[in-house]
Automatic annotation (TrEMBL):
Gene3D superfamilies: 3.40.630.30
SUPFAM superfamilies: Acyl-CoA N-acyltransferases (Nat) (SSF55729)
InterPro entries in alphabetical order: Acyl_CoA_acyltransferase, Bact_Acetyltransf, GNAT_dom
CDD domains per the UniProt record, alphabetical: NAT_SF (cd04301)
Keywords: Acyltransferase, Transferase
Any GO molecular function: acyltransferase activity, transferring groups other than amino-acyl groups
Boundaries of every N-acetyltransferase domain copy: 43-193
PROSITE patterns reported in the protein's UniProt record: GNAT
Name used for this protein in its record: GNAT family N-acetyltransferase
């Protein structure tokens, strides 16, 4: 994990424990946020998945997916949008939207992928996930996307339950490679209302 981010983990945890969800605000990430976004993303990913994977696979995946230069490049991509949920200028949630087709044929013209939706471990259950999902749905509606989709590890029961609660349904499977370990994901989708 990035040392500069982990050093403030305890402080952020205390802020979150006192947090009222109404104090949360969102903004797009900028290139200046790349290191903080990388540290936050890696920390939340490790918190969720480290106990279920080998240290070698976690290191390989995290070093490739969460390097600050990788995140900086993604933030600049025209087909990617990172939104940050913040409390007292500390990241408590992260949403990555990507304009991409699902890995299976779908009868939709303009799908939008929720590529990442991460919530700080101490902020889970405080409504941050709902705020991030509402932002994804609002962005999709505002930009004429007719379908939201995502992939989720088949063993991540809490995330699957959350997505179902948000209206998503399982539509298929896909393989996600974590390090060198191919794992099965559920693909979940949500048609957007027509306006």
């Amino acid at each position: 994990m990035c040392a500069d981010y982990s050093s403030v983990f305890v402080i952020i945890s205390r802020i979150i424990q006192l947090m009222d969800v109404t104090q949360c605000w969102m903004r797009p990430a900028t290139a200046a946020d790349a290191a903080a976004v990388a540290g936050f993303a890696e920390m939340t990913f490790r918190d969720t998945y480290a106990a279920h994977n080998t240290a070698e696979d976690m290191e390989l995946y995290c070093s490739q997916a969460y390097a600050p230069e990788v995140l900086a490049a993604e933030i600049h991509q025209d087909d990617v949008l990172y939104l940050l949920a913040l409390v007292n200028d500390h990241i408590v949630g992260l949403l990555k939207l990507q304009w991409s087709q699902p890995p299976m044929p779908m009868p939709f013209d303009n799908p939008l992928q929720i590529s990442r939706i991460y919530v700080h471990p101490e902020a889970k259950g405080k409504g941050i996930g709902r705020i991030l999902m509402a932002a994804a749905k609002a962005h999709a509606a505002e930009h004429g996307h007719d379908y939201l989709w995502l992939g989720v590890w088949q063993q991540n029961e809490a995330a699957i339950a959350f997505y179902k609660k948000m209206g998503f349904a399982i539509i298929g499977t896909d393989t996600f490679v974590l390090g060198k370990d191919p794992q099965l994901d559920w693909l979940m989708g949500l048609p957007m209302p027509k306006h």
